[in-house]
Amino acid sequence: NIPANDKWTQKGVTIAGGHGQDSATNQLDRPLGLFVDDDQTVIIADYSNHRIIGTAQGKILIGDIKCWGLAMDEQRYLYVSDYVKHEVRRYKLGEKNSTLVAGEKEGIVVAGGQETRNALTQLSSPNGIFVDTLGTLYVADTLNDRLMRWTQGDKKQGTVVVGGNG
């Protein structure tokens, strides 16, 4: 939480990238999502490089993913929306295995996947995501023009919060 009376510096500092568009660990290519954890590590969804990179570690945290949105829950699980696979995955930082929290192909389904359609079990190019203090996952289901909600433990289908095709 940022106090309302905090002041910001007028001069920005590059904390990631800034060395041209490419795939070295000091370069980014279309960074689309970011999250700052409690340790002030900036976690970046480096979309065109298909990876999640962390600034404090200076290394690739997760590879081989078309990442877009990022969120973190109270237990420090990182949630990543995959725009191409139409799913949201959950990762414990420092571990390579993931849990599918919105999708179907691997792991435990919590939201979406299967194929790109508009059923309550599916997502179509998920973008922004948010996890509240109760573990409820909210997903901007971009190509279905809706906001979906998955309550913790509900692996079958989500609920349309707003929008949709009917």
TrEMBL record:
Pfam families in the cross-refs: NHL (PF01436)
Q: Name one GO molecular function term.
A: zinc ion binding
* UniProt-listed InterPro entries: 6-blade_b-propeller_TolB-like (IPR011042), NHL_repeat (IPR001258), TRIM-NHL_E3_ligases (IPR050952)
Give the protein's recorded name.
NHL repeat-containing protein
Question: Which UniProt keywords are listed?
Answer: Repeat
Q: What is the lineage of its organism?
A: Eukaryota, Metazoa, Spiralia, Gnathifera, Rotifera
